[in-house]
Design goal:
alpha+beta, six-stranded mixed β-sheet, 621 residues
Amino acid sequence: MSFVYAGKYLRINLTTGEQKIETISEEDARKYYLGSGYAAKLYYEEMDPAIDPLDPRNAIYIFNGLLSGTFAPTACRSSWCGRGPLTGIWNEANVGGHWGAELRFAGLDGLVITGRAEKPVYLYVHDGAVQICDATHLWGLDTFDAHDKLLQETHPKARAVVIGPAGENLVSFAAVMQGGRDHSRAAGRGGMGALLGSKNVKGIVVRGIPASEGGKPAYAEPSGFRDVVKADNAYIKEHSLPLSNYGTAGGIMGAEAKGDLPIHNWQAGSWPEGAKKISGQAMHDTIWVKHTFCHACPIGCGKLMEIKDGPYAGVRGEGPEYETLAGFGGMLEIDDVQAIVRANDLCNRYGLDTISTSSSIAFVFEAFEKGLIAADEIEVRDRDGDGKLWGNVAAAHKLIEMIAYRRGAGEYLAKGTRQAAARLGRGAGEFAIHVKGLELPYHDPRAFVSMAVTYATAVRGACHLESLSYWRGYGVEFEGWQAGPHDRFAAEGSGRLAAELQNYIGTYNPLGLCKFVAKTGFTPKAMAELLQKALGWDVTDAELLQTGERIFNLKRLIDNRLGITREDDVLPLRLLTQPRPSGGAEGNLPKLDLMLEEYYQARGWQADGRPAPERLKELGL
């Protein structure tokens, strides 16, 4: 058995208090890796489609990747998996920072939590055991205050994940937050914070074994692994300078120029001056404090910001990333970057996914404009008496709070735009922009058409991270595999591209690595070499890609059992029928049916959206 990963995880039943250590066979580790791959394997074997996502019998599966806690580049990440409260289907939310590495140092690869505690609790993992501790006094605190108090009560060098009021109030897109004020990281999408909240768990604190006492992983080829990592880190640093300098926020102006940045709830085409005002470059020149790094990261995309004057003076914390700037900026037409920093701060404190939150607010702005929502429901009025809220900072900030506490319109917005639209009726579904209940992230499939099929088929609902195929349109190449010119508007080849990149990018969460490594052009061959030196496995790039395909199909089987078919592999009509009126993607629409046909052929799926038995047999499923 390799000592890179611990080879065991802990099951905890909060209803009974029972705890049990389970082992992970090397055969399963090689077949599914860990992270969301192994979590999917367990969930598929144990799932009951008949029970609600927030039923105490449903488990949350928290697993490190295979390399989490090693010094492989960015090997820090943990996957939070199960049936999503927002969508009702498979969900995984992945988070970096330092908590996952600390869990490995504590001798565990994961936790599986079922049941529900009688009163609020937190879990403290240390010294080879788990304490279930009273958290009644922490319930109601925001994530920053709860994080600090947990370290005061346990160990100053421990690592903690927490939920905020949104998770406690079972907001369907509540996040799990890691790192506290100065380095906030979120397992954000799909509502895993609500899943923890439904179990009365405020947080999980981990204190590992110090390195001097044997807490570090051991490698099959220590010197060989060290040499490979050294070379990989140098390559990654060289090819990620924009991320290192400005974070993902540095891409706002480039996205706007390509027609990739959503504006006015996906209706407008151009916003160059607004994009410039809210860019990572603008923040760097005014409120940037320092770069922040996750465990074993050579990139440092995190950016600590502090506002020292004006209406938001005193706000300090992790700066907003691209998705947050796009959501609270372009989607709402707010060009005050400090107001967006405050919106990000509020979401982090309450424990909210910034994508679903900002998308829900854009939905409200349009519903108000169309007369479907009254002013008293949102506790704020339009600024100029014109019946519109676009650009209204006060409205955006107020709605964040209302969603977190499920007050007024926040009560139904807390369930996501799909359910909010169903409640409002009168055509509201036309501007609730989601796939399978998950609000779209902010890369426009009219600008990069391969993203249309990615969103339509992604296993957790609309998700750019399952293929990241739009990177090819920005010029990212993988030498010897996905390289050469790429036409971002061409339907032909885009279905196959999405499938192939889903297979490769789909290995990152199971391996515990950050997907920004792939943005540098890091190839499957390079990844296979990393695994060879770390684990001593004779793994090839072809085997790596097949493992990614196996894991993706397993998650699709889960969704099939939860009712997903080809009829659900769709996009919002706005993105299929309404072209952008100006900008870098003016006039273009994705030909989804053509791309889906090619995608299904590449996947070996049947016409009803189920993997064909012969393909499953090839994959060992």
